[in-house]
Design brief:
8-stranded antiparallel β-sheet; Beta-galactosidase, Chain A, domain 5
């Protein structure tokens, strides 16, 4: 694992990108340019925050009680779920949402885009432990471009001789005014699996509003979603390609209290997850010698 000093020497960009160790020893990339600020933990290639300079509050939410610890996931930001989403299909002892979000990634490239945005390219580091869970030859890379918009590209290349199937997600948490007041549009008339209602298949009627725990997997949709937030006076757009599932999630009071890191007592009210996913019937077969890429772009605009 590279130290912050080594990363600064090789990849740091004056006025754009620097690296530092947090109190627990994890290395965090800090991005600051004329368009936006952001932070990303090298463990998990976990984008933790993103705030365009046009916005008075962050767009990507990080819990005030988030903990950075070796081998543990971070509450908030945009966790990378891979190579499966949710529980492993056959091994209950394997971690939920895969291992990508809790292992070290390696910085491969950094640079400045022509428009002034900052670009990072990271690659997952495989190990004997990860190969027990995923015995396939492959390369997983994440490209993050931080500017007035945020672009994330998760790319899986099958470098082996056999095909394999992946589930994946960018499990993004968004900062909102209040969960009881926001609306999500773009998924009208889509089918979804209601995980709170016992994994029942339903169809979305109209826009999505929230009055209790919500955990839905919308399937067979590449639609752009919009979080309509009158309280903060903005719309957050989530546009994607290479993804045919969208998860909409809020834990609500009881579940948030059990989690312990949601920013008690009411931090959960200031976030909603709109996740760009390939899961359930939309898992992706990656043939030998081919590459699959999921791309998501986020932007915020005034109402």
């Amino acid at each position: 694992m590279s130290t912050a000093q080594q990363l600064n020497t090789r990849f740091g960009i004056d006025g754009h990108l620097s690296f530092a160790e947090d109190a627990g020893g994890l290395v965090v990339a800090k991005i600051s340019n004329a368009q936006a600020t952001a932070s990303l933990c090298m463990q998990g290639a976990h984008l933790m925050t993103w705030q365009p300079r046009s916005q008075p509050l962050p767009v990507v939410w990080l819990s005030r009680d988030a903990k950075l610890a070796a081998g543990k996931s971070i509450r908030g930001g945009a966790p990378v779920c891979w190579p499966w989403f949710g529980a492993h299909p056959s091994e209950p002892g394997f971690p939920g949402h895969g291992y990508a979000r809790t292992v070290q990634w390696r910085m491969v490239e950094s640079g400045k885009e022509p428009d002034g945005a900052t670009r990072l390219l990271l690659r997952l580091q495989q190990s004997e432990k990860t190969r027990v869970q995923w015995p396939h030859d492959c390369t997983l890379e994440l490209t993050v471009i931080v500017g007035e918009t945020l672009r994330m590209e998760l790319s899986t290349e099958n470098t082996g001789a056999g095909d394999f199937t992946i589930g994946e997600a960018l499990h993004t948490y968004f900062r909102i005014g209040d969960i009881g007041a926001v609306r999500v549009t773009g998924l009208e008339n889509c089918d979804y699996w209601d995980k709170v209602g016992g994994s029942v298949l339903k169809r979305q009627s109209g826009q999505i509003t929230f009055s209790g725990e919500t955990d839905r997997v919308y399937v067979n949709t590449a639609a752009e979603c919009v979080i309509e937030d009158d309280q903060l006076g903005r719309r957050i757009h989530v546009a994607k390609s290479g993804s045919l599932s969208t998860v909409v999630w809020t834990p609500w009071t009881e579940k948030a209290a059990k989690m312990g890191d949601m920013g008690q007592p009411d931090g959960w009210r200031e976030m909603v997850c709109i996740e760009s996913v390939n899961a359930m019937e939309n898992v992706v077969k990656v043939a030998a010698g081919t590459r699959h890429t999921m791309i998501v772009e986020y932007r915020a605009e005034p109402v």
